[in-house]
Amino acid sequence: MNNRVPARLLAATTAALLTLGGAAACSSGGPAGADPERVDVVAAFYPLQFVAERIGGDAVRVTNLVKPGAEPHDLELNPGQVGEVSQAELVVYLKGFQPALDEAVAQNAADDRSFDVATVQPLLDATAGGHEHEGEEAEAPGGKDPHFWLDPTRLATVGDQLAERLGRADPERAADFTARARALRTDLEKLDTEFAAGLRTCERREIVTSHTAFGYLAQRYQLQQVGITGLDPETEPSPRRLAEVAEEARTHKATTIFFETLVSPKIAETIAAEVGAKTAVLDPIEGLADDDASSDYLSVMRTNLQTLRTALGCS
């Protein structure tokens, strides 16, 4: 990625911020606006915020470290955010997805105050759900795809485990958390059924995407993902890779090249112009584009389903 902070510098910077954050915590006696009647939860990015709020209800106060419209991969913590991590009763995160947060959790949030959702189910390999390609754009061996939430059944399982962790933090409300997790699972299983039915009979099963964020969705619903770039959305594809994807798009008679809300559409537009296709948004739901209260994980997933049905010629 073009503007990445070197790992050693990032570690040093985060350590300094941790010191500042810890000092702020001691001087203030608690996070600003903390409510002693609610569990203070820090969520690493939007899908984890969605699950925490659905399961916690009024019994939790959830802080998302990534603002709407921001790219969660690029999270860098300011002193206030480090303070929030240090004071949270539970930090819900995905280890390996946001290095700065991994460092903050490792130094400032004990195991009983952190929940790594990657431990719930093994993550898929980066190449899952798609064609494998040799060459410079291939994912590194052993690389894992973090976008588990695009399989609603996996997100439901994370919700079940989160209810258990919240129950430890607030035992008196444990039954409430469990009941809300069951309700969330019902909603997510309904969504899963809609996707399975909606994508069962389609003219095409190949989705050409700006980057390979959709492996879980592709595997769950028997699609094939063709990514212009790999898991890093800011990677610049080589001319050779662009030519390969254009050829695959022609071979599969793709009518649509997908791009996403938080990344420039220019590369997708280049391929679309080359093969005579349209472009459309397929949202990986790493974050919401804005603060629109009417939009949430479920509504964005259903929009994705309709977009896919149109692009793939589903009946």
At a glance:
This protein has 315 residues and is of the alpha/beta class.
Describe the structure in your own words.
- The structure is a single chain.
- Helix content is 44%, strand content 12%.
- The protein is of the alpha/beta class.
- It folds into two domains: 7-191, Nitrogenase molybdenum iron protein domain (Rossmann fold, 3-Layer(aba) Sandwich); 201-312, 3-Layer(aba) Sandwich (Rossmann fold), CATH 3.40.50.1980.
- It has a four-stranded parallel sheet, sandwiched between helices. Strands 6-5-7-8 form a four-stranded parallel sheet, sandwiched between helices.
- The model is unreliable at 1-33 and 132-141 (pLDDT under 50).
Look at the structure and give the mean pLDDT: 86
Proportion of strand residues: 5-15%
Any idea of the CATH class of the largest domain?
Answer: Alpha Beta
Helix content: 40-55%
List keywords for this structure.
about 325 residues; alpha/beta; Rossmann fold; four-stranded parallel sheet; 10 helices; 8 strands; about 45% helix; globular
